[in-house]
# Entry
Amino acid sequence: MNKLYQLIYDALSSPNEELGDRSKYIGSSDLGCPYQTYHNKKNGAQPKTLSQLLVLRRGEMVEAILKKAFSNCPNVAYQKEYQHPEIDYIKSHLDFEFFGKDTIGVLECKSIGKDAPLPKTPYQNWNDQLNMQMGLSHLNNPTKLIKGVIVAINITNGEFKIFDGYQYNETSFNKLVQRAQKIYHAIQNSNYEDLEAIQSPICNYCQHKIHCPSFFYVKNEEILDLTYLNDIVSEFLQSQIYESEAKQTKQTAQQAIQEAFNNYKLGICNIDGEDIRLKKVDVEKYSFNEKLFKDEHPDLYDKYLRKSSYSYIRVQ
Ligand code: SF4
# Structure
């Protein structure tokens, strides 16, 4: 392996010392998928390629951007560690914590993948992570009102979204503590049978997909050797990326053209010497409100509902 490559690889694959030995405790980011956490902690994460390591560092870049943004804010803590006062193996490192007179604000930042759209609502594993952090902050600062916010950033295209309005919730927190305890005891007893495999966007980077009961593995089903189709599957995956990029480009262009046509019906432009005509066409469209119909006429809905089945190949 090239020396420079090796140097970068070694630097990026060394563990983040700020987080301590993660095999010894259950952190808030371990709650997303108990099955994955068990296998990561029990068997150690598999070696990653340099590309995978670089992608995983995106989150730290987002944190660094926000750290700079908050550098002049008073009373802000970065990567503060909290431990559950009664369960010493439950810990969390909060990205940012803002201390007010009566209130504490917990901020969790998330980085979005290159081709992933910003979600309309936060993913469940994001909510779980923040709820656990707010709960630990509450237990360590019982007189303060604990609030939370998630900031999601796509550093490739500059899109960002703020999900605000979270507040410490005892019921959600207790459920998460129970989940953490279940994971911890499964690890101690080397038995993961009762652990849930919960799908989320992290499945894309998960090293346990091949034996994951939720994502891929089906009990008693033989796994076909399709390595002779490697090139074709690779082309298929590449074409999916092109398709998504083309879709995004089309949407952006469509929006710019629509805006230009605000009060006009006809337009012309010239591409490589050829006139291109653009015309605004008004269309009337009818759509069927299936949900309303189902609510108001459930019998009729059931009478006309036809069930059919088909299968398709999911490539992940
Ligand atoms: S593939 Fe997804 S559901 Fe399965 S273990 Fe990994 S993260 Fe969990």
In short: The chain has a mean pLDDT of 90. The first strand starts at residue 76 and ends at 83. The pocket of iron/sulfur cluster is lined by residues 33, 35-36, 197-199, 202-203, 206, 208-209, 212, 214-215 (CB under 6 Å).
